[in-house]
Amino acid sequence: MALLETRSLGHEYGGQTVLKNINLEISRGEVFALIGPTGAGKTTLLRLLDLLEMPSTGGIYFDGRDVTSSEQSRLEIRRRMSFVQQKPIVFSMSVYDNVACGLRWRQRKGSNTRKKVMAVLELVDLAEHGDRNAKTLSGGETQRVAIARALVTEPEVLFLDEPTANLDPASISKVEELLAQIIQEQRTAIVIATHDLSQGQRLAHRVGVLIGGEILQVGSPAEIFRSPRTKAVAEFVGVENILNGIIRSKENNLATIEVDGQFIEAVSHFAVAEKVSVLIRPEDITFTLAKETTSARNVFVAEITRVTPLGQLARIEADCGFILLGVVTRRSVDELQLSPGKKCYTSFKATAVHVIKRWS
Predict the structure, then answer these.
(1) Quick one: angle between helices 95-104 and 112-123, nearest 10?
(2) 348: which strand partners?
């Protein structure tokens, strides 16, 4: 049985639909990342799951129990959850007292309080700052205090809303290390809302893609990022090569797909003559100056049409009879002397191609 479940969940603000037909199941000890662009409804969904607001339609179930039915049920269940906001609030008191608030709000007192607070401060690497005024902390330290305050109550579900959105790279790394440790050592279910795709990949067991108020796909990070089911998901997770084609032949599961007069080989279960979309991630494209011996089944003569620097990387646009976008290091650009007008070869493996039914 799922620890937390939603059934046909929907929500409106002022007559405007914000969420629709949300069906999710979160298991005990699972880390579930909710990814999607800004304004997709991620924070609203977290607030509903944490029972801070009631849905306009549908139900929320905790441990099999409908918790949208009564205020008493909601209060009881909320004490088994914790929520860390995107911009957490700390009070003008010591770090220790800020963390202890989580217990005091739940009317848990006694000698065990100090033991619990010190243990969680040790966990978030702030044990030496217990007497410090929390208002003097850095952004990353403030976030860790908020996480400690949430954890000290030993919640069964921890909600994190963009936990590293406003932090510098060093603080992001520190907070992610902390979250990875919590995930490894505790059985707390974690639901994390983030627009940082790599963060979702690094931390989550499963990922849900929320776009336009709808969950468009749920699966493992590999399934989401390698096998998106819709164009919206593919574009959001960075699949820039989306090519329309028709399957012309098949041998077992190896299909030959015609794309703008060229032929791409890919593993596919679709039948001959079906209209499909071919998805290839830019990092799976290889550029060479000679037609080398390779295991890649797809090799095309190409002309570079654009090179766009991206820090230590570069985005390469090549015309192979169809346009392919690749990403390589700046060093590769220099060594191969890739520039507009340069002739080269592009290649990618059949297993790097994801084939889905063509979108309308």
Answers:
(1) 120
(2) 298
The residue type of 250 is: K
Give me the DSSP letters along 330-357. HHHHHHHT--TT-EEEEEE-GGGEEEEE
Q: Which of 258, 290, 287 is nearest to 348 (CA)?
A: 287
**Per-residue pLDDT tens over the stretch 79-124:** 899 999 988 888 999 999 999 987 877 666 665 888 889 999 998 9
**What's the pTM value of the predicted model, to 2 decimals?**
0.83
Strand 157-161 vs strand 189-194: parallel, antiparallel, or unpaired?
A: parallel
Q: What is the DSSP pairing of strand 298-310 with strand 343-348?
A: antiparallel
Strand partners, 287: 346
Q: What is the separation of C-alpha 333 from the centre of its chain, rounded to a whole number of angstroms?
A: 30
Q: Helix/strand/coil (H, E, C) string of 115-169? A: HHHHHHHHHCCCHHHCCCEHHHCCHHHHHHHHHHHHHCCCCCEEEEECCCCCCCH
- Token pair in block for residue 271: 């039948």
Long-range CB pairs of 177-184 (<8 Å, 24+ gap) are: 178/123, 178/124, 178/125, 178/144, 178/147, 179/147, 179/203, 181/123, 182/123, 182/147, 182/151, 182/158, 183/31
* Strand-pair category, 262-267 with 254-259: antiparallel
DSSP state of 50: T
Residue indicated by tokens 């494209």: 285
Q: What is the pLDDT of residues 289-347, one digit of tens each?
A: 988 777 788 999 999 999 999 989 999 999 999 999 999 999 999 999 999 999 999 99
Give the position of tokens 């979108």.
Answer: 359
C-alpha–C-alpha distance, residues 141 and 126, integer Å: 8
62-80 in b/e burial notation, b at 16+ Cβ within 10 A?
A: beeeebbeeeeebeebbee
